[in-house]
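Hello,

Our lab assistant flagged a job as stuck in the queue for most of the afternoon. It eventually completed. Since we weren't sure the result was trustworthy after the delay, we are filing this so someone can double-check. Below is the sequence as submitted and the structure that was eventually returned. Let us know if re-running is recommended.
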Amino acid sequence: MAQVGGLRWSAMQLRPVALFFRIKQPRLAFSFAVAGALSFWLPDVAIHTYTGHNFAPPDVWLITILAPATFLFAYVVARRFAVKRDFKWAGPAMLLGVWLMGGLFMTLAATASGSEFAGPDGVWGSLLWIVLSVIPIVTYILAAYDGSVLALLAVTLGALLVLAIRRRRYS
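-- returned structure --
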């Protein structure tokens, strides 16, 4: 057992920390995470900004098609860049960015469309949702409210499918 600052830590508790420090190119991983978040959530923000209070079911279908398509395009570009830099985890880093930065972009989309996402809590309510969206289930719930849940599921399940195919091909 490791001891840090008078506290005893088991190997299971230190494993995520050790995994973080094993990332060989953390700046590149962060860049891919930001690229994934921007490529997925910017179409959502743009559609919400354009439609405003007139957000309707056809707009949900537009998000469902457009967000995964832009993510896929960004992934293809990022994958080529990652191969040149010998970085093997571009896809997971991009998907992590989609899930971790979802609350920020959904709050921006709601604010831009004039729906006052924060409610009576003002800025503090928005900040609370952004911080809580680091928890994946909160991002999922916010996406259901936002109208992008199908797109989020499509990108996530598509990434898992690609990962499974690549693992099977190389094993």
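-- support follow-up --
The delay was a queue issue, not a problem with the job. The result is valid. The chain has a mean pLDDT of 83. Strands lie at 2-4, 7-9.
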